[in-house]
Specification:
Blueprint lengths: L1 H24 L4 E5 L10 H14 L2 E5 L6 H13 L4 E4 L4 H13 L3 E6 L3 H6 L5 E3 L2 H14 L5 E5 L5 H14 L7 E3 L4 H14 L5 E4 L2 H14 L6 E5 L3 H9 L4 E4 L2 H18 L7 E2 L3 E3 L5 H6 L5
Length: 315
């Protein structure tokens, strides 16, 4: 019996050794996610939750950085600073290719792996030397929304753009116009980000363009004040209203019938997946062969249960 127990103990020690060695071989990996979002944009809380959860599950360090006012030139400096800090990888949006391509390419040249998420395109990700792209093709999403709206009878629209300084966001409006089969013209409104200003601009546009029968907003920043504008002028629930992204007020609007649908690009996945992918790439050398489209997906009143449960947190 003593010999048997000794043999079992030795066997267990031998069996445990490879796993212990594998764990010891894992260096402490660190990743920085850089976004273009200003501090005022609460939609990015889901992104922060996504990298935090992935960091905990994968056992890696994660950090979120952004330009407080949403200034793209400031974001370029943040990418430079992030690369200089020596992380294993940077996950970044590509909100303005011309401004951000050089700092991203410099990061890659210094040996930092990069994944593009949220904004930009798979082609742009390849051009700057990134491993891959995880996000929603903005023009394609806008085009799909335009086709849907056209099928529902929309002919004249207002696109409320709260991020006019970010060219890729405007692709949503251009895609929507093409999906409708109309010229974008003056339908894209530079609304700014101040809620009162957005509401007043929407009210003024609708007053000056009474033939407008559809509205597209590009996220909670522009959707929430637009809801307030429609409630003020009595058009809530009567004018066709679609929006990108989700949020507490957007979900309420869909549920009440003020908003016809929201486009969910699943920002949680845009943050969570790059951390998981990079970790497995750095640990085991494995990498998906294709870019990942996290959206678009249309959320209507028929599919709100999970969205309501996790709105603003993971949805």
């Amino acid at each position: 019996m003593k010999t048997l127990l000794t043999s079992i103990a030795m066997g267990a020690a031998v069996a445990a050794t490879p796993f212990a060695a594998l764990a010891d071989a894992h260096e402490k990996l660190s990743y920085v996610l850089v976004s273009h979002a200003p501090d005022s944009d609460s939609w990015w809380n889901t992104i922060k939750n996504g990298i935090a959860l992935a960091g905990d599950q994968m056992g890696v360090e994660v950090e979120y950085r952004n330009p407080p006012t949403g200034d793209i030139a400031d974001m370029a400096r943040i990418i430079d600073q992030a690369a200089a800090s020596g992380p294993n990888g940077i996950i970044t949006t590509l909100a303005d290719y011309d401004v951000l391509k050089d700092p991203i390419m410099n990061a890659v040249a210094s040996g930092v792996d990069v994944i593009i998420m949220n904004t930009g395109t798979p082609d742009q990700a390849r051009e700057v030397g990134a491993l891959m792209y995880v996000g929603q093709p903005e023009y394609d999403a806008g085009f799909a929304a335009g086709i849907r709206a056209k099928g529902d009878g929309v002919t004249n629209f207002l696109c409320v753009n709260h991020a006019i300084q970010q060219p890729t966001v405007g692709e949503r409006c251009r895609g929507f116009a093409d999906g409708l089969g109309v010229d974008l013209g003056n339908s894209m409104l530079d609304s700014g980000t101040d809620p009162s200003e957005i509401k007043n601009k929407v009210l003024a546009y609708l007053s000056a363009n009474p033939d407008t029968d559809g509205i597209l907003t590009l996220g909670p920043v522009s959707a929430d004040p637009t809801i307030a504008a429609l409630e003020e002028n009595g058009m809530a629930g009567d004018i066709y209203f679609g929006t990108f992204d989700l949020g507490e007020e957007i979900v309420k609007g869909i549920k009440s019938g003020v908003i016809n649908w929201g486009i969910d690009q699943q920002p949680f996945l845009q943050a969570y997946l790059p951390v998981v992918i990079m970790t497995n790439y750095h640990r085991y050398g494995v990498l998906p062969g294709n870019n990942i489209n996290s959206g678009p997906g249309f959320v209507t009143a028929d599919a709100l249960e999970k969205v309501e449960e996790f709105a603003g947190e993971y949805r």
